[in-house]
């Protein structure tokens, strides 16, 4: 049996594609907003990478949780793990 014949392969590929598309769009929007604000603050460029990393992580975690709670194209439902607030 090839990898593509294994149960769940199409489900996993579809979930990954949807997650990657939403994450990429959100990251671009967020990063542009942070750049816009940072460019108006003294020393903003020194911390914008740190801010982007933290905000991107939080946004991606929230997106993954929401996408994980949606029913998949093939009727599969899987809870996304909760974010670790200690990270």
Provide the descriptors you would attach to this structure in a database record.
single chain; 87 residues; mainly alpha; 2 helices; 63% helix; elongated
Report the strand count.
0
Distance between termini? 39 Å
Helical fraction: 55-70%
Structural class: mainly alpha
Order of helices and strands: HH
Describe this entry's structure for a reader.
- The protein has 87 residues and is mainly α.
- The chain is 63% helix and 0% strand.
- It contains 2 helices and no strands.
- Helix 1 (9-38) runs antiparallel to helix 2.
- The termini are far apart.
- The model has no long low-confidence stretch (mean pLDDT 75).
Set down the secondary structure blueprint.
Blueprint: H1 9-38, H2 44-68
Structure summarized in a few sentences:
The protein has 87 residues and is mostly helical.
